[in-house]
Write a structure and sequence with these properties.
The protein has 688 residues and is α/β, with parallel strands linked by helices. The protein is 59% helix and 13% strand. Helix 4 packs across helix 5.
Length: 688
């Protein structure tokens, strides 16, 4: 073979090797660059998710801080209120700014079809069940209204003049906002985990392919790059582990959080069941935590929480679970708890350790803690009921004075069962419209004329008989049943009064009690006018009794405008329980109120209590000067009536006049007191 063909073949082979080498090198370079870009993208995504989670966490803290500051401002003395209002204003502004930043960071669009996707961020922000956008805006609006109300009180001119009590922060909006941000944080974490898994899977494929090419071509060239990739991979894994830790741990105390408890409680119960052991659920909270925050500041409060958490860890075994539910509420899940005496001794030891003094910056703090205990399987066989029963036991311990613990008992179980049964019976009574209306007259002491009659709700249970309003109304209010009950009472009372009016029976004005919850119903005024029209009762014959907190409600809630609309239609407004709230005298005027109702606590024993006599006299003179009528409720004795008459309070309502009566008895009472008509007598005889 000649030299030239050999050189030609050799040249082609070298060219082929070089081409293959450079092609492999380019492939490796491309793969390395792609891997690096992918890693950078993953880190940027993780950083973005960290930022979002930080914002969400801050929003949760700020929402709690807004609610706390709102309550603290209302409870604080006037000299401390400006500082609290300033802090509330700062927290509200920061909450609003962070929310705008959150919308900007997420790029969420309320018009996006993604809000229908239950796995999307838009779903939490703009759709059921959370509607976080709505509740966040509502919380900011409530905060701004409260700030405006207090600032107007401080300056005395301009701004809102309603008073802070009229803009009480809506607890339901605050709770819904907190729940929404918790759900948003979970959604962001879940989305981040899903994207991370996909990116990690792609990265692993690319990494192993790159490693194979490196081994085949030039391992020593790509060794530094391999080290860099491994380093980035470890950083990503560490970041993911950190996110996983944050997701199930409390950021302040390091204890497990409510999410972890929810996810693992059932597993703990199943394990306890298999081992045939007992499991004790100890729910704790600090008796004076709010006082610590108010007097020493939040730094001291946070320090107390951290120390309490550490003492909880020190007091139990490694296998036990310590959880911070939120605020100053904690739960300890103690496996293999033993007998009642063992749990008793353990609870005493835990509380004794937690209740030891805490020194913060030279100040000795005595936080005090109370605990409620529920035991599996004695008190309940599922996680939810165990927590509920432990909470009831905690409430029982607090009623004993705090600093102690209480076991869930049969008495508490009966109380819980009775309340559940009462809730069910109220639902049934609403469906059957079983609530009755009793009537109590109001009369003039001067001439005995009937000035009005108040409609009162009564419930005659089919099995338990007459249930006092003080027993079922609080339950109905807590369960949200009062608007429905109120409409039943209003309808029945108006229909009965309309029949009296058509029969020519004098009853003055019919007075019905209306709560703020009922007035917040968007169609309440339409319902009221429709009921009056159907019954045929003139609007001037009806009066709505409202408490001071309702008349002082902020204009933005719509209640004030709704009351003006109702009053403009001829319905009278009466301020009930006057003197027991915080009404500003600027709101007690004939343009808003037709009559004041003095609370019974000032009327009882007025003839023996000089202070009460002075209060009633002052209210009477105030009302007389403003041209507003007045009625005193709770008059039960002749001596009380004589004192009211002497003071000048002419209209009264109470047992000394008449007890609340069902409609038939009320009709008899009213009929018996109607003025007798003169009879015409025809004289016999001749005309002159």
């Amino acid at each position: 073979m000649s030299q030239q063909p050999v050189q030609t073949v050799s040249g082609k082979l070298i060219l082929l090797i070089k081409a293959g080498y450079w092609l492999a090198l380019l492939i490796i370079a491309a793969m390395v660059i792609a891997s690096f870009i992918l890693l950078q993208q993953m880190m940027a995504t993780q950083q973005h998710n960290h930022t979002l989670l930080d914002i969400v966490g801050t929003q949760k803290t700020l929402s709690q801080r807004i609610v706390f500051l709102a309550g603290a401002t209302g409870a604080a003395s006037r000299d401390k209120q400006p500082a609290l209002v300033s802090a509330l204003k700062q927290a509200t502004a920061e909450f609003e700014t962070n929310y705008d930043l959150l919308l900007e960071q997420t790029g969420a669009d309320p018009q996006s079809p993604a809000k229908l996707d239950p796995k999307s961020i838009e779903n939490v922000l703009f759709a059921k069940p959370f509607h976080l956008d709505y509740f966040s805006v509502g919380l900011v609006a409530n905060g701004d209204r409260l700030i405006s109300a207090y600032e107007s009180q401080f300056t005395g001119n301009g701004g809102y003049k309603g008073g802070g009590e009229r803009v009480n922060l809506n607890a339901s909006v605050a709770n819904a906002t907190l729940s929404g941000y918790a759900a948003l944080g979970q959604r962001i974490s879940a989305d981040a985990d899903e994207r991370s898994e996909k990116l990690l899977a792609l990265h692993r494929t690319l990494f192993y392919a790159t490693l194979g090419v490196i081994i085949l071509v030039a391992l020593f060239i790509f060794r530094p790059m391999s080290n860099a990739i491994l380093r980035k991979t470890h950083e990503l894994i560490d970041a993911r582990n950190s996110m996983a830790f944050i997701a199930v741990h409390d950021g302040l105390t390091g204890l497990h959080n409510r999410t972890f408890l929810t996810d693992h409680f059932d597993t703990l119960i199943k394990g306890t069941h298999r081992r045939r052991e007992r499991l004790a659920v100890v729910q704790l909270d600090l008796d004076r935590f709010k006082q610590i925050n108010d007097t020493l500041g939040h730094a001291a409060g946070d320090y107390v929480l951290v120390v309490t958490a550490q003492r909880m860890r020190d007091s139990c075994r490694a296998s036990d679970l310590c959880v911070r539910l939120g605020g100053d509420e904690f739960v300890m899940i103690l496996g293999g708890a033993g007998g009642t005496e063992d749990i008793n001794m353990l609870a005493r030891r835990i509380l004794a350790h937690i209740n030891e003094p805490i020194v913060f910056q030279g100040t000795t703090i005595l936080p005090g803690a109370s605990a409620g205990i529920a035991v599996y399987p004695i008190d309940a066989d599922n996680a939810q009921d165990l927590l509920v029963h432990a909470d009831l036991a905690l409430y029982s311990a607090k009623k004993l004075g705090g600093g102690n613990f209480s076991f869930f008992s049969e008495e508490l179980r009966r109380e819980l069962d009775y309340r559940k049964q009462l809730e069910h019976d109220i639902k049934v009574a609403i469906a059957e419209r079983a609530f009755q209306v009793y009537f109590q007259p109001q009369v003039s002491l001067t001439n005995g004329a009937i000035s009005g009659i108040e409609a009162l709700v009564r419930w005659n249970h089919a099995e338990r008989g007459m249930i006092p309003p003080g027993e079922f109304i609080p339950v109905a209010e807590k369960c949200g049943f009062m608007p429905e009950i109120g409409r039943i009472v209003i309808s029945k009372a108006i229909n009965e009064a309309a029949e009296w009016n058509r029969a020519g029976i004098a009853f003055g004005r019919l007075a019905v009690n209306v709560s703020g919850t009922e007035l917040r119903e968007h169609d309440f005024d339409a319902f009221l006018f429709e009921t009056l029209e159907k019954a045929g009762l003139p609007s001037q014959k009806l009066a709505l009794e409202i408490v001071e907190s309702v008349i002082l409600d902020d204009e933005k809630t719509g209640i004030a405008a709704k009351l003006r609309h109702i009053r403009a239609a001829g319905v009278h407004l009466e301020l009930d329980d006057f003197g027991t709230g915080y009404a500003s005298l600027s709101h007690v005027n004939p343009n808003e109120i037709d009559r004041l109702k003095i609370d019974r606590r000032f009327v009882q024993n007025i003839h023996e209590n000089g202070d009460n006599s002075k209060i009633v006299r002052a209210i009477t003179e105030l009302a007389r000067g403003l041209g507003i009528s007045i009625v005193a409720e709770g008059a039960e004795t002749e001596a009380e009536l004589d004192s009211l008459m002497a003071i000048g309070c002419d209209q009264v309502q109470g047992y000394s006049i008449a007890f609340p009566m069902p409609h038939d008895k009320a009709l008899e009472w009213l009929t018996a007191r109607m003025p007798k008509k003169a009879r015409l007598t025809v004289l016999q005889g001749s005309l002159a």
